[in-house]
Amino acid sequence: MTNQVDETYLTLGRQILTNGVQKGDRTGTGTISTFGCQLRFDLQKEGFPIMTTKRVAFKLIASELLWFLKGDTNIRYLLQNNNHIWDEWGFKIWVESDEYTGPDMTDFGLRCQTDADFNRLYQEQMKIYQDNVLQDDAFAKKFGDLGNVYGKQWRKWQGADGQEYDQIQYIIDEIKRNPDSRRLLVSAWSASEMASQALPPCHYAFQFYVVDGKLSCMFNMRSVDYFLGLAFNITSYALLTYLIAHECGLAVGELVFTGADVHIYANHIEQVKEQLSRTPKKLPTLQLNKEKSSIFDFELADITLLGYEPHPTIKAPVAV
Known about the structure:
The chain has helices spanning 4-19, 58-69, 76-80, 87-95, 108-114, 116-135, 137-144, 150-155, 167-177, 226-248, 269-276, and strands spanning 21-23, 31-42, 157-158, 164-165, 185-187, 203-211, 214-225, 251-265, 285-288, 303-306. It is α+β, with helices and mostly antiparallel strands. Strand 3 (157-158) and strand 4 form a beta hairpin. The chain starts with a helix and ends in a 14-residue tail after the last strand. It is an enzyme of class 2 (transferase).
């Protein structure tokens, strides 16, 4: 059986390379961009949706999702779980502050790629930053917190009435109470809080749909890094759908991705071509701890991916 998860994803990559337009971006890296894309994945067929044409770090995806679900916005939890995918954003807050006294880290994301001497300095400063977040409570509070990012919006949305609203708990309660609701929607986009976010949400909203005892999810993204981001996001929202379905006593249905500016960074083109040259493999299966009834009680040990044997990792720099 053909692996439709990889095939669907790779088809989009070919379309961007063929039909995309060159476009500037906030990071200064440059992109090949296209606007308005949709992908669909049947969660009941084949296996769990994670790329097999390159290794995707599932434990990083799972720990980040659990971080969101905890309502946490401080990267200390991620570092404790050896997850470094948000380090650069916290590091940027530190090196741009008045308290930073080390070497100049201006444009560190781009300079690391072309200057080996600078990269060594950057790695030294990053290690100092990580150690301080892990060991110094005051430092972690000031420079480890990324502001009102996903976890805060999902679990502690600030209402106009001054009250906090737990959007995830609402979704779970409403699915159990009224599965035909068309209001099973979570938003992470708060115009009034953008200035307090290290990175405004890329995946800014998602909505659930229940029919025939199956839970489907559509997630929406304003900006999509095709090579590093999208593969990660597909697996993350698939896992979220499985977790919500688990608590609500439902089977999984379909996962739908809708993206606005979907782009390949200029320094990811060769990596994309390498992935496109590979043949998809068999998808793995997901196993959740059935003894846990609430998704808020899940830890990494409760989430297992079985039979994941992908092609090797393809490394690429993160645009910050």
